[in-house]
Write a structure and sequence with these properties.
The complex is a heterodimer of chains A (about 300) and B (about 350).
Chain A lengths: L1 H53 L5 H5 L12 H32 L4 H13 L4 H15 L6 H25 L3 H9 L4 H30 L2 H5 L4 E3 L26 H9 L5 H34 L3
Helix pairs in contact in A: 1-11, 3-6, 3-8, 3-10, 5-6, 6-8, 7-8, 8-11, 10-11
Chain B lengths: L3 H17 L9 E7 L4 H14 L3 E6 L2 H10 L5 E4 L5 H9 L4 E15 L8 E2 L1 H8 L23 E5 L4 H11 L10 E3 L2 H10 L3 E6 H6 L5 E2 L1 E3 L5 E2 L3 H5 L7 E9 L6 H20 L7 H12 L17 H6 L9
Parallel strand pairs in B: 1-2, 1-3, 5-10, 6-7, 6-8
Antiparallel strand pairs in B: 3-12, 4-8, 4-9, 4-12, 10-11
Classes of the chains: A mainly alpha (about 300), B alpha/beta (about 350).
């Protein structure tokens, strides 16, 4: 009899606790939703204000004109070409280095103190403020190697900056491949490299690519390290074209040319006395934002397509 | 591969875009490297822009590392021309001399340092240099916090201070002219290398006061008020083109400079650029908000360039309030005096 009473009492308690948990559940949904909406509203407001401020500047000429002291004549040609070339150098250097390091650390490296130290360092590097990379680049690339404030220096700097991101993304993607895939490859007589090249890498490519593209998106928006190496300049010309009509058709002079990039051009315009330049800054910032969004969107599409191909 | 077509199409599109936007040239062009003061930057930039329109084969880059940062690069031989919002300092002269770099000093325009207050500030129409010193001297830090401490007739509104960063030539000039010693200043003010931040600050604070170049005041005259400064003759003078030209806006009008390396002048492109610079600096400096020097000053500077007259007339220290024609006619020297 007393037992029954105790059970009903407990049931009541359980019910009220359950109701409490459900309330907490709903509350969490509300908090999570408002956090998401807040972020979206901020981004929306930012894009909206950039569009409103910059709308008067959007025209074909804005993309084909060099910077100028006349706001209406000033464009972002040298800035977007600079951003593009820097990104090419960054990708050509950062991706092979990052992917190779990631694969080595995950597949080949023995587990000892030495590799643990490397691992900790890589993870720490991902959190180092970008200005520090700029200072390193100023000392090493600009002065020791004598590369000057060139596109090559800028690309190397940003490649270093995104290296940890690529390494971490590669390692995580490689780690996610089930061991059975590796064992199956070994079972039919594959060497370690054959196993990695034919199986691990293709399956991991979606994750590697996503990490890489997000890293490149970050590189595109970086200002501080490039200002440190001395890229805050008025540049009204383009570097020598990488392709030419005469033999050998390729020209690497552009690697050593000075440059400016979109975020630096934006920063330059925001600090001008004439209020009309704020419109240029807004238009340039909008262009940069849209480019970054496009890059991230590309990453999402690639990931989706690559994932669909994988069938285990 | 599924993305093959997409990838190829975008590669082709990208290459086409690059080729279309690019003149396919193989010849190496000459590059003129300019760096230094952000105050002089708008003038140098305007000259570079016009010069490149007239001479498309010569390339000019203009950086803005600040006066001090510019001289560091200049004395390492990295740049051809260095812009400066104050004359070269003794330490920089020795640095350049040690590296075997000699230079011709060219005054390129006047800037009028403008003391600004909030438009709601009805009391400080006119201020003396002593009053400015009361506000800005190092001893005022943490003590002079309200306007009535500057002058008993002022209200008790709190003083809110805005000034350029300590690396700027503007900060050096103002502290020298007002406090009597370069870089001697109270430190409890909002500092920014970006003058627009200072504009915003003073425009939003009723008790705000700040200083920067005339160009920033002219562009924001609708939300700021310029203070008339009492000159040594006892006249209250507002900053303007007319008062700078007449030499009455003292001591806050200052010449700003470009220094060109003597050996760089042997490069035809640099010599051509300098000639273009001095011929157009007057017109272009007015266009970007500064005050042009008298025409004879530019002519004299061109003579100095032609004669490769090396050194500075300031002897490594700043001198406040010398008439510009005395500056261009004075003897130059490459070694600091004293």
């Amino acid at each position: 009899m007393s037992e029954v009473a105790a059970v009903t009492f407990n049931l009541k308690q359980v019910r009220s606790k359950l109701a409490g948990r459900k309330r907490a559940d709903r509350l969490y949904v509300l908090v999570g939703l408002s956090a998401t909406v807040l972020g979206m509203i901020t981004l929306g407001a930012l894009i909206g204000s950039l569009v409103i401020d910059g709308s008067e500047r959007f025209s074909y000429e804005f993309f084909t004109n060099f910077p100028s002291r006349f706001p209406a004549r000033a464009g972002i040609l040298s800035a977007w070409v600079g951003s593009l070339l820097i990104l090419v150098v960054t990708a050509l250097i950062g991706i092979p280095l990052g992917v190779a390091s990631g694969i080595y650390l995950e597949e080949y490296a023995p587990k000892n103190i030495f590799t643990s130290i490397i691992e900790i360092n890589v993870n720490n590097l991902a959190g180092v403020p970008s200005i520090v990379f700029g200072l390193l680049a100023l000392g090493l690339f600009v002065y020791v190697f004598g590369l000057g404030k060139s596109i090559l220096t800028g690309g190397l700097t940003l490649a270093l900056l995104i290296l940890p991101v690529i390494i971490v993304a590669t390692r995580e993607a490689v780690r996610a491949i089930p061991p059975s895939i590796r064992e199956a490859a070994y079972a039919v007589g594959a060497t370690k490299w054959q196993m990695i090249y034919d199986h691990v890498l293709p399956y991991a490519s979606a994750g590697v690519l996503t990490g890489t593209i997000i890293g490149l998106g970050r590189a595109l928006g970086e200002t501080a390290p490039l200002i440190t190496i001395g890229a805050l300049t008025f540049i009204a010309y383009l570097p020598a074209a990488p392709l030419q009509l005469e033999w050998p058709f390729l020209n690497f002079e552009w690697l050593l040319a000075g440059f400016t990039v979109l975020p630096i051009q934006t920063y330059n315009w925001t600090s001008r006395p004439e209020p009309a330049f704020q419109a240029n800054a807004a238009a340039a910032a909008f262009t940069l934002l849209m480019t970054t969004l496009t890059i991230n969107l590309t990453a999402i599409i690639f990931r989706y397509r690559l994932r669909r191909r994988i069938k285990w | 591969m599924m993305n093959g077509l997409l990838g190829r199409a975008s590669t082709i599109g990208l290459s086409a875009a690059i080729l279309a936007g690019w003149s396919v040239t193989a010849a190496a062009e000459e590059i003129i490297q300019i760096d230094g003061s952000s105050t002089v930057f708008p003038i140098a930039e305007a000259v570079a822009e016009e010069f490149q329109i007239a001479n498309p084969s010569i390339r000019v880059t203009v950086g803005l590392s600040g006066t001090g940062g510019g001289f560091k690069k200049f004395c390492r031989g990295e740049t051809d021309i260095s812009n400066a919002s104050r004359p070269i300092k003794a330490s920089e002269m020795s640095e350049c001399a040690a590296a075997g770099i000699s230079y011709v000093e060219m005054p390129v325009a006047f800037d009028a340092l403008t003391v600004v207050v909030n438009p709601q500030n009805t009391w400080a129409e006119t201020m003396t240099v002593e009053q400015l010193k009361t506000i800005w001297e190092p001893g005022a830090e943490g003590k002079v916090m309200a306007w009535n401490q500057v002058d008993a007739s002022y209200p008790s509104d709190p003083l809110v201070l805005f000034a350029p960063g300590t690396d700027s030539g503007t900060f050096e000039y103002f502290t020298e002219a007002v406090n009597g010693k370069a870089r001697a200043s109270r430190a409890d003010f909002t500092a920014s290398e970006d003058d627009n931040t200072l504009v915003q600050g003073v425009a939003q604070e009723k008790g705000g006061i700040g200083y920067f170049g005339l160009a920033y005041f002219t562009a924001n005259a609708d939300r700021l008020k310029a203070v008339k400064i009492v000159n040594p003759q006892g006249e209250a003078v507002e900053p303007s083109k007319a008062t700078v030209e007449s030499g009455t806006y003292v001591p806050l009008a200052r010449p700003i400079f470009s220094y060109v390396r003597v050996d760089a002048l042997d490069k035809p492109a640099v010599a051509q650029f300098v000639e273009f610079y001095l011929a157009n600096a007057g017109k272009l400096s007015e266009e970007v908000g500064y005050v042009a020097l008298p025409a004879e000053a530019y002519a004299k500077a061109q003579e100095h360039v032609n004669a490769r007259r090396a050194g500075t007339v300031f002897g490594g220290a700043n001198k406040i309030g010398i008439p510009i024609m005395d500056v261009v006619n004075a003897e130059a020297s490459s070694t600091p005096t004293e």
